[in-house]
Amino acid sequence: MKKLICIFCCILSFNAFAGFSPGGKITHLYTNGYWVLVQVDNTSIHNPADCANTSYYGINLTSDASKTLYSTLLAAKLSQKNVTFWIAGCAGQSNSYPRIDSIKMSR
Q1: Confidence class of residue 96 from pLDDT cuts 50, 70 and 90?
Q2: Residue-level pLDDT at 15
Q3: Which of the residues 23, 67, 102, 103 could staple to 86 if both were Cys, CB 3.0 to 4.6 A apart?
Q4: C-alpha distances in Å from residue 97, one per residue of 4, 66, 67
Q5: Phi and psi at residue 10, to the nearest 5°
């Protein structure tokens, strides 16, 4: 029973540090060789992991999956589509910004 309670508490604590951002259109993309910072027109930045900076969302370009996210961001910016992000942890320049784990693009 103690193990079950411990597992349940771990799941709850994980969800406390992740969640969906408010939706909006991408207004700025700031790119370096290793990270991308993203700003949307909704001024409310979702920051469940209490990252140091909340002026942008971030992605670290260290895997093929993150490069796919970056391609999706570019497509959303160019087509002016609304995006919503699943945010978990911190990333971007000095790992200071809420990290984008997935992207939902809509009309």
Answers
A1: very high
A2: 47
A3: 102
A4: 33, 15, 18
A5: -65, -40
